């Protein structure tokens, strides 16, 4: 289940905290400065996946109903007026 009504500011705040936490080893071990942003980008991709699944849950039943209606319309023979 996907958490509903999570504001984007909360996601961006978590991203900033994660960058800050991943920046500590950069300062200690003199790693590349791109490392924290690359690691925290994984979190953004994870959030994007959660959002994609939430949209799938939201639109899934409606898409199934529309496809059933279309298939029923195709099965019904059309009558033409003479």
| Class from helix and strand fractions | mainly alpha
Segments where pLDDT lies below 50 for 5+ residues? none
Mean pLDDT over all positions: 79
Helicity, in percent?
Answer: over 70%
Give the SSE string: HH
Largest pleated sheet: none
Number of strands: 0
The rounded Rg comes to: 24 Å
Please state roughly what percent of the residues sit in beta strands, choosing from under 5%, 5-15%, 15-25%, 25-35%, 35-45% or over 45%.
Answer: under 5%
Q: So what's the overall shape?
A: rod-shaped
Count the DSSP helices.
2
Task: Walk me through what this model shows.
The chain has two helices and no strands. With 82 residues, it is mainly α. The protein starts with 7 loop residues before the first helix and ends in a 7-residue tail after the last helix. The mean pLDDT is 79. Helix 1 packs antiparallel against helix 2. 1% of the residues are buried.
């Amino acid at each position: 289940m996907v958490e509903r009504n999570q504001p984007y500011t909360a996601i961006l705040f978590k991203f900033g905290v994660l960058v800050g936490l991943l920046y500590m080893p950069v300062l200690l071990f003199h790693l590349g400065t791109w490392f924290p942003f690359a690691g925290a980008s994984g979190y953004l991709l994870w959030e994007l996946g959660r959002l994609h699944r939430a949209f799938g849950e939201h639109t899934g039943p409606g898409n199934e109903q529309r496809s059933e209606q279309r298939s029923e319309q195709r099965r019904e023979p059309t009558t033409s007026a003479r």
